[in-house]
Sequence to fold (379 residues):
Amino acid sequence: MHDIGEFETFMRNHQNMVFSTAVRLLGNEPDAADISQEVFLRAYEHFDDLRAGPSAGGWLKTVARNLCLNHLQRYRARWRFFSEFGSDDDDRDFAANIPAPAAGEQPMDEEQERRVLEAALRKLPDAQRVPLVLYHFDDLSYEDIARQLGHSLSKVKTDIHRGRAALRRKLRLSDEGELSTGSTVAPDLLRPGAVQLI
Amino acid sequence: MDTAKHNAPRDPLAERLRLLPESAAPARVAARVLAEVEARQALDVKLRALPLVPAPDSLAPEVLAAIARMQRRAWWQQSWFCWPASVRAATAALAVAVLALGSWLGLEGWQAATANSADAAGWFAQSTVGELLAVLARTLSALARSDYALVVFTTGMLVSTMYVGALTLGTVCWRLARPRR
Fold:
């Protein structure tokens, strides 16, 4: 039996991190809450090792990630069906169906942009969201992601690329907008009539 | 009209690149690649800057309630490793004793059954599976005619021992692998 008060403090210190990991991988909050509960019940069983260790956060994140991937694997047949057997147009249509910004619409402030990005991330198809989250939030390499998901390296790269494209469209991160804020690509290249051979 | 294409945001960079002359194709490609890399980096920065999603207020109370339920369970409903040491020692000793007793009874029965069988030596001398099975069938048939009760008793002990051993092993493995909450 462990000290419940001490465990509760430990749980409250890490619950946001665990829940964020789960909700970004699963894309919905009810499932993420269930997974988070399971993570902390397992943490309770190993609390003697975790309470003082510096790697508690890493342990919790790893367990949360594995439980989420197991949860998604249970629906793998349907996931794979829509991911691999769907036509290429399906992913393009998802991104293209994001409405174009209205004329005269004010640019988003940072808070609004974060909310839009978080919502858009959850709306991505599983096949794009999961590898993208593993890459950007868990710092896994393409090879590690491919190994963990049981996919080919090229499929992982393609799915991440499509996910990024969909998010950029949602945020209206235009290439020209990024170039105009101090980009290394010389604007000279874009002037009509400018020719530079590489 | 293709609704998807109609709704797609227009790419200003693509529009400007298209205006370049044909001879600027390499420059167009280079500009596209570099712009793609910078956009990817910008998105990476924005994603990593996202704050943590707050956990629901009900998460901690639900976890604590589940822990309280776990602690209220009787000891025999928990994992085998949570049982009292004396009970674990007793169950382990019982499982070993059942397996040992069954093995001994089976061996004794087999030795008694083959002691008076003229085909026993021939059975061990056979080299093909078919001949082995044929000899085994003749031996069992002879035993059944000579001492039917012994054959039934030996077979019954062997089957019972295997069943109890498998059940015990399966229960232990299940408790170790999937403790209930």
